[in-house]
Specification:
It is a single chain. This protein is mainly alpha-helical. Among the domains are: about 110 residues, Helicase, Ruva Protein, domain 3; about 55 residues, no CATH class. About 50% of the residues lie in helices and about 5% in strands. It has 18 helices and seven strands. Strands 4-6-7-3-5 form a five-stranded antiparallel β-sheet. Strands 1-2 form a two-stranded antiparallel ribbon. A hairpin with an 8-residue loop joins β6 and β7. α11 packs across α12. The two termini are about 40 Å apart.
């Protein structure tokens, strides 16, 4: 373990944890009081019984359940640093690529049958699997029922997690999995593809015909369930997810947004090219351009399936990583733009300072909360234009230094 040096940044982080412990972020003060939790659980059991869950299942699943403070702390935890494109894409590494290629071959007959039924290309199913659970090497290690009971009792997202807890109990009641094997993330995401219980309820499939929908142990059920979910979102197996592209020198970076959609031909007319310099495909896909690392990073043209990946996980970085990992399985090359040697990590506190300094100068960045949304990006672009630097709306340590000099 590395030596811990107490800096201002660490002091701020410790302060955050102190706040968490006293419940300012909404953890109920009754969390530490077993009587309050037991009363809540007794009332919940009555509702679960009325919903059709058997008394036997409720007794085996809920007897002796206690709140798990560690789960609440995870729900409240705030990262000290923002998640950068460069660090996120480290997940698409040689080991994960090589393993995925092996598994694509191993499960090829099964994956072809799943594709014939649901219309999802095998390489994407392997990519989701690789990124969700590292090909089944980790399901999260948390018992699902106690974790969900804790979050359903906690007041921050009680309604959502109450639904998840009921769904998880129904899964047990139906016999799809036993209580001791129902393991998942701290938030209740389960199995090889990390379905939350309500998603499982709606889209899990018994593809192997054994009478159980088992996303923990049956790869037939795992792949079919994932494909069924993607199919329900409108997945098109005649399309890919997108591609890396080359932007023209005079590109207006405000056009790089999921909110801007144009036919691929229109981007071609605007000077966008394949990363090799050739023309874009002559197809009429509705396409958005993204620059997830700012003007110094790669640019991507993304299609309809990209948005469907984001319905699975509402993160641009996640969707790019799924798409790119799937490309690597079929022999496509790495992303051409490498991380700049002098790239610096940006902390949440730096983002808050950037927002505050923009507000002080009349650029409406919104509340200094450390979260970069549309308002903050617009404010950054306006400031960048004033300073005659590339107006990509991207947060960097250099941007903060520029603001500090004002």
């Amino acid at each position: 373990m590395r030596e811990i040096v107490v800096t201002v940044s660490h002091m701020r982080l410790l302060a955050v944890y102190a706040v968490l412990l006293i419940g300012v972020f909404g953890a109920p003060s009754s969390l530490a009081n077993p009587h309050n939790f037991d009363t809540w659980l007794a009332n919940f059991r009555l509702d679960a019984l009325r919903s059709g869950i058997s008394e036997e299942t409720l007794r085996s699943a809920l007897d002796g359940v206690k709140p798990r403070p560690k789960v609440v702390r995870k729900d409240r935890s705030q990262a000290e640093f923002t998640q950068s494109y460069w660090r996120y894409m480290e997940r698409v590494n040689k080991r994960r690529i090589d393993k995925g290629k092996e598994l694509l071959i191993k499960y090829s007959p099964l994956l072809k049958r799943v594709q014939a039924r649901y219309g999802v290309q095998p390489r994407f199913l392997i990519a989701f699997w690789g990124l969700e659970s590292n090909y089944g090497s980790t399901f999260g290690g948390h018992p699902v029922i106690p974790s969900l009971a804790t979050l359903a009792y906690d007041n921050r997202r009680a309604k959502f997690f109450r639904v998840q807890l009921l769904a998880a109990l129904k899964i047990l009641d139906r016999g799809d999995i036993t209580l001791d094997r129902m393991i998942g993330s701290w938030a209740g995401a389960m199995g090889h593809v990390q379905f939350i219980p309500s998603t499982y309820e709606s889209y899990a499939v018994d593809f192997d015909g054994d009478g159980r929908r088992d996303i923990w142990h049956s790869m037939a059920d795992v792949f079919a369930s994932a494909a069924n979910y993607l199919s329900s979102l409108g997945w098109n197996d005649k399309e890919t997810w997108g591609r890396e592209v080359r932007l023209p020198a005079d590109f207006d970076f405000s056009q790089a947004s999921l909110s801007v959609r144009k036919p691929l031909y229109d981007w071609q007319q605007a000077g966008v090219r394949r990363i090799t310099g050739g023309k874009l495909p002559n197809v009429n896909f509705k396409t958005s351009l993204l620059i997830p690392a700012g003007h110094r990073g790669p640019a991507f043209a993304v299609y309809g399936n990209f948005r469907r990946i984001m319905r699975w996980n509402r993160s641009i970085l996640y969707a790019i990583s799924v798409g790119h990992l799937s490309d690597r399985f079929i022999g496509l090359g790495p992303i051409s733009v490498r991380r700049p040697a002098n790239d610096k990590r940006v902390s949440v506190y730096m983002v808050k300072e950037i927002q505050a300094r923009l507000n002080q100068r009349g650029f409406k960045a919104g509340k200094p909360d450390g979260v970069i949304g549309k308002g903050s990006r617009a404010a950054i672009r306006a400031f960048q234009k004033m300073k005659n630097v590339p107006a990509d709306g991207y947060v960097t340590a250099d941007l903060l230094e520029l603001l500090r000099k004002e």
